[in-house]
Please model this.
Amino acid sequence: MNLKTKLSVNSTLLFAFTVGLVLTGSFLLFKKHRQDLYYERLEDSALITAFFYFEKDEISKVDSSRYQTIEIEYKKITNQTIRIYNAKTKELYLRDDIDITLTDKDLKAISKNRIFYFTKEDRQFTGLYYKDNQGDFIIVVSGIDIVGDQQLNALGLMFIGFYLLAIPFNFLLGRFLAKQTFRPFEDVIAKVNTITTENLHSRLEMPTVSGKDEIKELITTFNYLLERLETGIKLQNNFLKNASHELKTPLTIIIGDIDVSLQHPRSNEEYENVLKSLRKDTFHLKSILEELLVLSGLELSEPQKMETIRIDEILWNVLEKKAIEYPDSKVSVNFDNIANNEELLSVYANKDMLFIALNNVLDNAIKFSFPEKVNVFASSNGGKLLIKIVDKGLGISQKDQESIFELFFRSDRTRHIQGQGLGLFITMQILKLHHIELNIDSELEKGTTISLLFP
Model:
């Protein structure tokens, strides 16, 4: 069952329940109203009966025959039966022609309430307690509201007919309205089905109708999804293209060195030089693979294994690694500005990720400024930890500053220095995850200062 049919069925069921409830309630209210009206008519008849029967002794004999004629005609017109009881003895004073016996309980209820309404065998009864100079009497008038029943039957048939006709009409109308409502969705679906990886640049057209509705929200959300997919696929394609190129270069060098060394016999010293070159290129290849693995496993939502760590401990571990990789390098660390505020060195972060980020920043500073010394300063900025890594290297042009954090970017001025163009991209992703602000201040041929402001 599609949504249009489901919506039509649900709306019809709701309509059937609501209208059925309203019609049933209306019918019952009208029935109760007719019943109350008829009880009041019987009460009026009881009062008239009291006048006829208990005031006859005050009427002259000349008028008594005429009075009896009026009484007979009155019974015919009202279609009601009348009986009168002595209130004390319960003796039947005037009998009617219906075979329904009233119990002592009924007569006591009339005496107690003075006026009492009740129903027996589909007949409505009104009992009236009447005091007269001849004694106390109970007048009981009963009848069947034939006109009221006919009206109720006609009303019931009309309600049933309306109900049976309204349900299918409501379903058809709901089906039509659902089709009109879902037509924009069908247009969106048709447009979406035309979008493939070849035309991800396509976007859904926004309806010209003013105002904001679910269709516009859906189109906006889907266009945003297309934009992210297009960006992701472009990044993936660029990544694969550049990664294959970066991996291909050291592999080509390794294969070339092996082919050259195999062309003719060489001395042990020549083989040793070839092996050293192969070792260097192999480490280069290993470095590329390690950074690609780091990049592929880097979650862009939130870092895992967050804990409180000391920045100075991570920094010393990085410097120990750099001392092994660059034994002739010089790095100076100065934490004097926060000597009285060491709690700033404790941050909430992922230890392994932060190690990678600081390692990449220091690695670039050492490589691009060698043999000049690199200085690391720690200070407080507005109650936050600020670390500056200052080198006296080649510097970064204003144009390159906007691109150095892009994947596989390599500046033309530094292509002679070994690198993969992965380190700073990975570093920026890690810093974003930790909400660490990075700022670059660089001048060509004078050096670069990288500032890291921790949250």
